[in-house]
Amino acid sequence: MGVKTKTMPGSIRTAGLRVAAAACIIFALSVPQLFAQEESTAVDTLKQGQVLLDRGGFGKAVSLLEEAAERFGGEGKPGAQAEAIREAAEAYQALGLYRKALDRLNISLSLAEGLDDRKMTALILGAMGNASFFLGKSDTAWEQLRAGEGIARELKDPETMAVLSARVAKIHEMQGRYGDAIAAYEEGIRSAETFGDPLLTAGIMADAATAFLLNRDLSRAQELMSASFSQYDKLPDSHKKAYGLILIGRSYAELAALVPEQKTDLMIHAYRAFREAAATAEAIGDRRALSYAWGYTGGLYEGEGRYADGLEWTRRASFAAQEIDAQECLYLWEWQTGRLFKGLGRMKDAIAAYKRAIQSFQAVRGAASATCKSCDRQNFRDRGGAIFFQLADLLLSYSDTLTDKDQVEPYLRDARDTIEMLKVVELEDYFADPCVTGSQTAKTRLEDIAEDALVVYTITFPDRLDLLLSSSQGIERVTVPVDAETLRRETGALRRSLAKRTTWQYMPHARQIYDWIILPLEPWITRYHVKTLIFVLDGPLRTIPMAALHDGKDFIVRRMAVVTTPGLNLTDPRSIHRTGNKILLAGLSKESQGFSPLLNVKQEIAGIGEIYEGRRLENEDFVAANVKAALKDKPYPIVHIATHGQFAGVGSESFLLTWDDRIRMDQLDGFMKLSRFRKDSVELLTLSACQTAAGDERAALGLAGIAVRAGARSALATLWNVSDQAASILVVEFYRKLMDPSVSKADALQAAQLMLLTSGSYRHPFYWSPYLLIGNWL
Fold it and tell me: Which has the higher per-residue pLDDT, 13 or 173?
């Protein structure tokens, strides 16, 4: 009995094309008859899995397809086994389990290549490219896609070309290359039409419409929506049809917002598309697609201000999602419920819905496709951060309706804790590591540590800046009437002007931001005799040094020490041990790998070596293997690395230069953890001569999170690459001051900065202000 297999992972299958053939099973004792019975079971299992895949039952489909693959493997049928594994990988990807999908696709690829099945190989490579992209491996994804596309062109097979073109187009689109996406989509449509698969054609048209919308070619987008919609009307019900209609409905809704003169007609089309998607989903029992169709219908009512109607449809969507535990869409509907309750003026209900939404989001964010780390045009804050800001805004707004301080404070803390959750997620997103913050939770509130410290938690809303001030006396709120765009422009101007070390162009910008950030704090600074300001910064404020802010008479660093921490729960607030500390010193003073020499690093390392005992790794000795061996051999409480380094907008592109290579942040993390479980962990990590990408909020986020990532209690690093001579002077003075048990790390940095500030050569803030003490300041 032959095995009929599908030929593509992205092919849109129609209901009824795979009806199991009736088979007469003759029971006898012969081996051939028993073998035929087993083969029939494997085929039936494969077909059952395919039907569930068609209908959106991905979890059950995976089990059946994996079972079929195992049976085909036992029967020595590698072709059928490869096909079943490939389809199981398709289901894994639909569930957002990209790593599992990629593992299975690697096995399927080996089988297909062993059979020299070029078509299957091309299709598997295309699926691998998709999975790799969503795992953050953009370069690998493109290699796989191009390889698959090359094979498809050699084969001149229109079905394979259509699938590969659509995959290439989607990734172009997600990376913001809309022109390239459009070209690939158009090629995919032509190939699908040549092949004669109307469902495949309709699907690619629906996808292509989104690219044309993003590229603002509205007439072509509308043309494709209409053509795809008409095509779907003629086709049998299937999972792919339901999702295609949902995509069309969303595209019509977006187009309505862009073409107000056609809004009524376009919204009617959107409603109709969602209605037909729901009918299709109900017909095939696809509860996930039904949830999306109902939920987006609720969204249309929300957009029209019909909150009660929107709430009814959104509740239906939530119930359907709960039935199948589809957390990836449940959080969308809880979020939408929160917005609808807010529109109805039911603030407490809105807050409760938002909290449920974040709980659902946290459950799925590591696996859901929304967490794509390769999407160059979006970071996490753009993709999912709004939910946290909106809840914080709700909590703060509700606190405005209360008069009793004891009632207000819990809402302020709740708002702060909400943004704190966001900061944890942002760091995990930046470093592409869901465990990066796992062991860094502080057991003591920062504001309870020192009575002379003030924690300043900034939250940047579109229309204002909120400062949440925490001290030993409690938490209070200050609102600054500056919108996010104005704040971003001013911080950018300050950052650029600070780089001009021969001018005073930074002054008006330093004063303006001082007036926004520091001036409102003066009553608390005076009341609590504040000596240390601990900033938990947000958005563009992460890209500038707070120490450089100026009141028109002097810099803030003259009055108090300044510390930055990535989050309240990401700092271990314990004092550094001052006795018996050993230091690992590593650095480059010679030219290496095309980077200029840092001539004063030798002097810097020698100066620190006179203060602390330890081991030195300089120039040729500064290689990754030696760093790893040193940290494994002894638990150095202080690690000082003076070399070229870069914190980029993508965590995987951040590095420290060694003599012959580069140490990535995940490698440094691994090295530091070698001694993490010894009695003494790393107290201080200093990165001298490193820098962030200028003005890049994501890069500054990575710099702020370096102590967390490396498993150190605190870090000293710079926002930009300063003069290595000035760096040598400052860091040596920092370590000298740190030897005094009565001096905190914050005070030691302040003293070192003031030494440069009062010198003739280095008084410009370019030299001393970019140093950030991150994390534990004690």
Answer: 173
Can you give the pLDDT at residue 485?
Answer: 96
Integer Cα distance of 732 and 587 in angstroms: 14
**Based on the structure, what is the number of domains in the chain?**
2
Q: What is the torsion angle, in degrees rounded to the nearest 10, for the CA atoms of residue 628, residue 630, residue 632 and residue 637?
A: -110
The CATH number linked to 89 is 1.25.40.10
- Considering 126, 156, 186, which residue would you say is the last residue of a domain? 156
Domain at 729, CATH number: 3.40.50.1460
Among the residues of 11-117, which ranges form H helices? 31-54, 58-74, 78-94, 98-114
N-term to C-term CA, the chain: 75
Q: Which residues pair with 253 in a beta bridge?
A: none
Single pTM value for the model: 0.85
Residue 572, pLDDT score? 65
| Domain span including residue 12 | 1-156
Q: Looking at the domain assignment, is residue 414 inside a domain?
A: no
Least confident of 84-88, 442-446, 505-509, 574-578: 442-446
Question: What's the rounded mean pLDDT across residues 66-72?
Answer: 94
> 472-486: per-residue pLDDT in tens?
788 999 999 999 999
Considering the domain boundaries, does residue 398 fall inside one? Answer: no
Residue 448 pLDDT level (bands cut at 50, 70, 90) = low
pLDDT the model gives residue 13: 30
217 with 225: CB under 8 angstroms?
A: no
Q: What is the mean pLDDT of residues 195-218?
A: 96
In the predicted structure, residue 169 carries a pLDDT above the cut 90: yes
**Is residue 514 one of the residues assigned to a domain?**
no
Helices (H) and strands (E) in the chain, counts: 30, 13
- The model's confidence at residue 449, banded by pLDDT at 50, 70 and 90, is low
d(CA 53, CA 34): 29
Give the whole-angstrom CA distance, residue 1 versus residue 24.
Answer: 12
β-bridge partners, 646: 655, 691
Pick the last residue of a domain from 123, 156, 189.
156
C-alpha distances in angstroms, 478 versus 418, 462, 521, 524, 731?
A: 17, 16, 8, 11, 35
173 near 181, Cβ under 8 Å?
yes
Three-state SS sequence of 257-298: HHCHHHHHHHHHHHHHHHHHHHHHHHHHCCHHHHHHHHHHHH
Residue 669 lies in a domain: yes
